[in-house]
Amino acid sequence: MAYTNLIFAWGWITLGLLSGAIQGIGFHRESWMGGYNAWRRRLTRLGHIAFLGTGMLNLALAFTLMVFGITHESADYPGWLLIIGAVSMPIVCYLSAWRKPLRQLFFVPVLSLTGGCVWFTVIVFNHLTRNGVL
After folding, report:
1. Alpha-carbon dihedral sign for residues 122, 111, 55, 3
2. Residue 71: what pLDDT?
3. Is 35 helix (H, G, I), strand (E, B) or coil?
4. How many of the other CB atoms lie within 10 Å of CB of 10?
5. Is the C-alpha dihedral spanning 11, 17, 23, 26 positive or negative?
6. How far is the C-alpha of 77 from the C-alpha of 103, rounded, in Å?
7. What is the predicted pLDDT for the residue at 78?
8. Comparing C-alpha atoms, which of 108, 115, 116 is closest to residue 90?
9. With b meaning 16 or more CB within 10 Å and e meaning fewer, what string describes 31-51?
10. What is the mean pLDDT of each run of 10 residues along the chain (134 residues)?
11. Domain ranges of the chain
């Protein structure tokens, strides 16, 4: 699973940079997408950052698995939750920018990312405790 999250992370970070470059074409115009504080502009910025942030979460998971040698298959579940959250977060951000009522879908990425992080924290804690590190 570590390699899946590692490859996904770098691809997602790349998409974050590309989406920022595309969005950056119009950012210099004061009224672009309704102005700096407009809902649409804020949500598209959040979508761009979501690629980068969730890519980093997947990168952190992959490196943690590799550094501590965690190979137990239970670590696959939080890895997949982080990927689901990473994919759904920018999608929900961009959909919400397009249609404000779609913000109700934020529970999908939030629960996926939070669940994956909590689950993975427990796995790492148990691994470190069993191996006498803690």
Report:
1. positive
2. 82
3. coil
4. 14
5. negative
6. 26
7. 95
8. 108
9. eebeeeeeebbbbbbbbbbbb
10. 90 94 80 78 90 96 92 87 97 94 96 97 93 80
11. 2-129
